[in-house]
Give the backbone structure.
Amino acid sequence: MNAQTLTYREALRAGIEQALEDDERVFLMGEDVGRYGGCYAVSKGLFDYYGEQRIIDTPLCESGFVGVGIGAALGGLRPIVEVMTVNFSLLAMDQIVNSAATLRHMSGGQFNIPVVIRMACGAGRQLAAQHSHSWENFYAHIPGLKVLSPATHSDARHMLGQALRDPDPVIIFEHVMLLNESGEVSELPEADMESALVRRQGDDLTLITYGGCLNKALAAANKLAELNISAEVVDLRCLRPLDTDTFLASVEKTHRAIIIDEGWKTCSLAGEISAIIMDQGFWTLDAPVKRLCTAEVPIPYPSHLEQAALPQVEQIVEMAQAIMEGR
Amino acid sequence: MDRENDNVKEIVMPSLGADMAEGMLVEWLVKRGDSVKRGDIIAVIETQKGAIDMEVYYTGVISEILHEPVVTLPVGTVMARVELTEASDREVAATAAPQMDTTVPEIDTAPQMDTTVPEIDTAPQMDITVSEINTAPQIDTTSPQVVTAAGRGSVIASPIVRKVALEKRLDLTSIKGSGPLGAILLRDLPETTKEMRVSTSASKQLSGVTKSMRGAIAAAMTKSKNEIPHFYQSLDIELSNALAWLKKTNEDRSPELHILLLALLLKAVAKTLTKYPDLNGFYQANQFVHAEEIHIGNVISLRQGGLVVPAIHHVDKLSVDETMQAIRDISARGRNGHLRSSELTDASITITNMGERGTDSVFAVIYPPQVAIIGFGKIRKTPQLVDGELVNSEVMSVCLSADHRVIDGMLGAKFLNALSKQLQKPELL
Amino acid sequence: MKNHEIKAVLLTAIQEIAPEIALEDIDLDEDLRDECDLDSMDFLNYLIEIKKLTGVKITEKDYPKVNTFKKMLAHLEQNIA
């Protein structure tokens, strides 16, 4: 398979471009996506090429324009709604949860809402308490939604296309710290939209993660290998529905698991995964399932405090060592 | 030991070998309230010699089950109680002593035969004093021995360890845990159990010589050589008549009815023993006790290595055909692991016969507490002088290993010669 | 039964007694008891298996005719009804 090297941002853009090319019903809408080229420059250049009918700058009103996107989807179009960051999605929560997620049910199946909502997420840019959230778990909680978390460049490139082909609402989370990173992009999707993937094989314990933490987990696995601990890394990719088969099979093999999740620990996705492992994989465990999450504080502004609050490679390594030593 | 009334009998962890100190209760085949009769198989016990079907010696109703599998218990531990339902059994119970050990005259309580106290102590002496009998393994009901997959009891182990323990019938109480709160983790398990992928039937077959079987054989043989002053005598026995008789008898027989020489040998030994009972019994507590019955142990080699030595009961009372049938039966069950506990404990003497794959002679090691073992060699064609003429002859060396505390050379020689005579008239066996 | 079927049946009978033996392990012209390490009890059980699988009864006087794999194969071919 041919591979290109792109930044994460460029991979996202390439995905949007292909979507616009493939299907004339597709269009992009959001704050500053058009003339400004996107606040993270993801849609840079697209307005000039595709014009204002297909790249739409919206007013600064999330509940309004997300509603418009839902309406467009109901009307037969295929909107890509960009919410600048997940932090602002709170303002459109009602639309997302009570319209997008539930109209199919409330209409007795008469209406599908084929909307894709893309949101930047995560911490690390010193955007402080109100702009650093990881709310994948909020949305993964809602029946009627699908939630994706592309952690690799290939997934950034291809998951959008897969999401657009889904007749029901899909939320895609794009971690801000990945945007500038370069990486290889495969020509075709690595897997179908709802599958998790084992990114690194191992025998001693399983690191389960998604999104911005994948690179940290892989880096930790490398460090652990030097310590003779063989860590398997599972990239969840799809957070609702969870590909439980993949991570349960991994835990069955290794008997130990750490879940790395940038959300806060309380009521986290990590907790959900831990419960699933306890429920369905209990008899395979040689140690309790551990969770490494963000500290239970609003994300601090100063860099050193922000980093102290977030999950780090050293913490993963230390947790892994503790488990292996039977502590 | 708990006082039991005449009506309620205790079922204890049996001693299935002189060297056995404990057994693992793996499965109950009965539950409280079930009726049982003498000879019924009521439990499966795992020993170093493999899985054994344990029989009950009473007829009655199971009134209590005291231990749940999977658990390792010292020999003599009361595992269950049975309430007798027949008066005759109450008497039988008082005299029955199929286990080899503690029927010492001083004891007047119904001998719960399985309290092999001396074997549990490290002292190699087999002295049993009355006080030792009374302090036979007390069942400590508070000891954390019960381990089930659900984890009742005080063994802490990770879920995967419990699962492996169940599958592989491990006794977790004997493993030290290195995890938090002393939990047993995977790495605490012995190397051989870490293979999680369940063995195929092929490797199950080949796992016959486990380290523990080898250990059991080692223990028994060492004990024998340490304690029993062996001496050896051999005699070449003419077998032409016996072989000719066999050939004729087998001529048109189907393979299921085919009689092997071994059957004749067993019958001959049994018959000879009725005349020389001093070779048929047990040496315990510095004295020899005659066995009332003639149960002959047979050494069976397992294909994958190792051996089992099940007994055929009452060989003197069986016909040659019945003896052959019994040989077929124990060979089959010896190989697939369904021997009964009585077969492993009741032998009053043992023979070993490797037949054509053996050697000219074999001087075997006595299985304590028996006092003799007879080894049969290969059949050899030799010329013999009969009435001044050379004739073709087929002979076999028969070797008696005997306990010199009980048997003298004169007796051994008489026995072998008498055995030889028996084998000259196969039709009378 | 055809030759290859009888061959399979024969191998099955052997493997009932000696599960670890494969066809490649056996020298077809050598005494089977030696090749497969069968004692007299094993040998009888093998004959019983053959009778069960093919109906052919083998008695002591037949032994010299059937002591190798090849010979047994030939004997069975002739005698299977």
